[in-house]
Amino acid sequence: MPDLATIGAALGSIKTATEIARLIKDSGSSLEQAEVKLHMAELLGALADAKVDVANIKLDLIDKDETISSLEEKIKTQGETVGFLGARYYVNDDGDPTGSPHCPTCWAQSKDLFPLLAWSNEDPTHKCGKCSSKVLGRQSPLDADYYIKSQREASVKIGGNFELKTTK
Ligand SMILES: [Zn+2]
């Protein structure tokens, strides 16, 4: 597990080694040869522990690097998306929602894009195949381009101003 406990353990071992080294230094010639040997053994033990801890930290950092790379790759291949009505959509070159809706729950949880599908003739919702979340059909148009175009035309017809509201 990459965590602060590993770093804490390494620092603890280094602190112990430092204390033993200081003890040997401060005692000067007052220590018996046997005592010096004993403290030296303790010192070497503490240093060996620190070495293992630092090696674990190195492994943790490699793990983290791999996780970061895979997340970066995920972001790169996904393209830009926006929240529109009750779903998540890819954006076109104008930055407007385009294509079919994706599950807002899966997006919120893990930045994964799973399609919302029409699944029932009786239930006016679209359902996520992954987490089974349901979003009202009118809150998740299956063709965003067509929906926006017809909304825009409708508001022009009545002299209104169509405003496209999206969220990051
Ligand atoms: Zn979902």
How many H/I helices?
Answer: 4
Q: Give the radius of gyration.
A: 31 Å
Please tell me the total number of domains.
2
Main beta-sheet annotation: 4 strands, antiparallel
Which spans have pLDDT < 50 for at least 5 consecutive residues?
none
H/E element sequence: HHEEEHEEEHE
Percent helix range: 40-55%
Your description of this structure?
The protein is built from four helices and seven strands. The model has no long low-confidence stretch (mean pLDDT 90). It has two domains: 75 residues; 87 residues, no CATH class. The strands form two sheets. It has a four-stranded antiparallel beta sheet with strand order 3-2-1-7. Helix 1 runs antiparallel to helix 2. The radius of gyration is 31 Å and the shape is rod-shaped. The longest helix has 46 residues. The protein has 168 residues and is of the alpha+beta class. A hairpin with a 5-residue loop joins strand 2 and strand 3. The relative contact order is 0.09. It binds zinc ion (ZN). Zinc ion binds next to helix 3.
